[in-house]
Design brief:
mainly alpha, elongated, 5 helices, 58% helix
C-alpha cells in the first residue's frame, strides 16, 4: 500500500484486511467444495485442472495465513495501544514491561457512527479530531 497506517486510515486498513480475509476464506471453501464434493460425471478434473487446483490451494492458504497474521497484528496493536514500529523498538531495547500505553478505544478507530456503519468503508467521524490525531492531549 506504500502508506503508513495511522489514525486517519486505520479503519480502512482493518476493513481491507477483514474483507480480504472473508474473500480468501470463501474462495478456499468454494475451491474445496468443488474439488472434494463434486460427484457428478461432468465435473471430473483432468490432470491439468488437478495441478491448477493444488497450486491455487497453496496460494490461497499462504494468503489466508498472511492475512490472519496481519489481522492479529492490528488487533494486538489496538488492544495494547502500541504501534508495530514502537513495539519492535521496545522489544529490541527490552523495555516492553515498561509500556504505559493504553488500549485504543474503538470509537477512536471507527468513529462515533452507529455500530452497523463500522463495516462501511467511509471516513470515520471523531468526537475530537485533534485528540485522536495526537495534536492535543
Amino acid at each position: 500500500m506504500n502508506n503508513c497506517i495511522g489514525a486517519g486510515n486505520l479503519k480502512h486498513f482493518i476493513l481491507f484486511l477483514v474483507y480480504m480475509w472473508i474473500c480468501i476464506t470463501y474462495c478456499l471453501c468454494l475451491l474445496g467444495a468443488n474439488y472434494f464434493f463434486c460427484s457428478d460425471v461432468s465435473c471430473e478434473f483432468n490432470s491439468v485442472l488437478i495441478q491448477l487446483v493444488r497450486v491455487l490451494t497453496v496460494i490461497g492458504i499462504l494468503f489466508f495465513l498472511f492475512l490472519s497474521s496481519m489481522l492479529m497484528n492490528v488487533t494486538y496493536g489496538i488492544m495494547t495501544g502500541i504501534g508495530t514500529i514502537d513495539r519492535m523498538k521496545k522489544k529490541a531495547n527490552n523495555t516492553m514491561n515498561f509500556s504505559v500505553e493504553e488500549p485504543i478505544h474503538l470509537k477512536d478507530v471507527f468513529g462515533i457512527a452507529p455500530y452497523w456503519q463500522w463495516i462501511i468503508p467511509c471516513d470515520p467521524v471523531f468526537e475530537d479530531d485533534e485528540v485522536v490525531m495526537g495534536w492535543r492531549l
